[in-house]
Amino acid sequence: MRTGADYLTALKDARHIHLDGERVADVTAHPAFAPIAATMAELFDLAADPAAKMTAHAPETGAEANLVFTIPRSRDDLAARRHAIETWARHTHGWVGRSPDHVGSFLAAFASSPESFVTDRRDLSGSVTGYHRRLLEESLYVSYAIIPPQVSRATTAHAWEGEFVQAGVVEERPDGIVVRGAQMLATGAAVADEIFISCIKPLTPDDRDFAVGFTVPVAAEGLKLYCRRPYATAGAPYDYPLSTRYDETDALVVLDDVFVPWERVFVDRDVDGLRRQFFATGAHVLGNWQAQIRFTVKLRFIAGLAGKVADVNGVGRIPGVQEKLGELAGLASLVESAVYAAEYRAASDANGMWRPDARAVYGAMGLQAELYPRVLAILRDLAGGGVLQLPSSVADLHDPAARADIDRYVQSPGVPAVERVKLFKLVWDAIGSEFAGRHHQYEMFYAGAPFVAKGYAYRNFGYDRAIADVDAFLAAYTDTAA
Predict the structure, then answer these.
(1) Stretch(es) of the chain classified as CATH 2.40.110.10
(2) What CATH superfamily is the domain 4-280?
(3) Long-range contacts for 54-63 (Cβ within 8 Å, ≥24 apart)?
(4) From CA 9, how far away is CA 28, in angstroms rounded?
């Protein structure tokens, strides 16, 4: 099994990461990326520890592999998969949205349905299953960029001015394709091994050149990552405990005529193939089940934060506070229940992969854009001005004169100032810092705009049955007066 040291060594390559006007020489040493790289290394070490019970026999390789990369072939496999995903999520308390198990879930589902990658023009099923074997053998961290740049929301790539703004095929060679353009939003790509490039946005037949799906090493010649402002450098871990551990960074992926060999190509200029790739294979539901497992862990952590704030402030017995904590508990429990319902109602597809129930997964996703802001609002209400009545930084605690005042005025009964400040600094990093703002936006939009997520819920709910029940009831009585 891959270790954290193996992973960190692999990151020391020729990748082109652009930040603050410069090219980053080594992401494992740069202050913007070293913390999240270290966190990812911890995940690999955790998976390699037999006590974590995160491995299983993979028939594709005949060896042990990380459970999060395997194809679930039974209900027991799904339960073991949930345990493995939750083990990783609990290590980061749900604050790392795109850990390796996310895209790994998509890739496992791709490989379970090789026929989805076969067309009259080209058979790419071997590329998909071969790459999945690599994933099992090497425990790769794969990020993805599957949304076009926001040039226009009203038109698709073929209508945009300029050549190949969205990533597309500019040349076909006997041994592969050459890709030019850009794609977003590659969360964690700066510290990933590879990137899966594709497009989940609906395309038209005129967009054929942009209808691709392939993997590429982050260090591939011609690939560049332009990262947003990092939050890991915000300050000391005491002041920004989440930012300094879990900032994944997001990036625009630019491909300047990047060569992709056929063994890495899953979809080649096939608009219908994009939809088969994500939905016919079950990848979208399996990948988003992982996301909801991770989200459940995060909500539980935020609920714990809220409960801790109430205790420290001495208001935990007040009915109004208990009402807010009860609402928070209800919201967290709804998502957790959906995770278990998806597992309970799972079924085998035609290829033998057990798919979590789409209705349960998408039902939770459809509420996320309203649910997460409400969760933050509850925590914000309970914290009140406590997140503002804080020393500027941990340095104030090391100044004797300042420390005396802080110890006297910034404390709670039974809770010394240093511990109260520590707690409320953590709360601020969850609700008010740049890191918190990014997570607010992320949880609302990572699955697409809210109307997209609600569309998944609508299509998978089963309205035909619900309407039939209403029709049957209406038919049971007439308009007679009696």
Answers:
(1) 4-280
(2) Butyryl-CoA Dehydrogenase, subunit A, domain 2 (2.40.110.10)
(3) 54/83, 54/84, 54/87, 54/88, 55/1, 56/80, 58/136, 60/111, 60/129, 60/132, 60/133, 60/136, 61/133, 61/136, 61/137, 63/136, 63/137
(4) 9
Mind listing the pLDDT tens digit of every residue in the chain (482 residues)? Answer: 999 999 999 999 999 999 999 999 999 999 999 999 999 999 999 999 999 999 999 999 999 999 999 999 999 999 999 999 999 999 999 999 999 999 999 999 999 999 999 999 999 999 999 999 999 999 999 999 999 998 766 677 777 776 789 999 999 999 999 999 999 999 999 999 999 999 999 999 999 999 999 999 999 999 999 999 999 999 999 999 999 999 999 999 999 999 999 999 999 999 999 999 999 999 999 999 999 999 999 999 999 999 999 999 999 999 999 999 999 999 999 999 999 999 999 999 999 999 999 999 999 999 999 999 999 999 999 999 999 989 999 999 999 999 999 999 998 888 999 999 999 999 999 999 999 999 999 999 999 899 999 999 999 999 999 999 999 999 999 988 76
* CATH 1.20.140.10 in the chain, residue ranges: 283-471
Predicted structure pTM score: 0.96
The C-alpha angle 263, 269, 270, rounded to 5 degrees, equals 105
CATH of span 283-471: 1.20.140.10
Q: What are the structure tokens assigned to 284, written together?
A: 């979208």
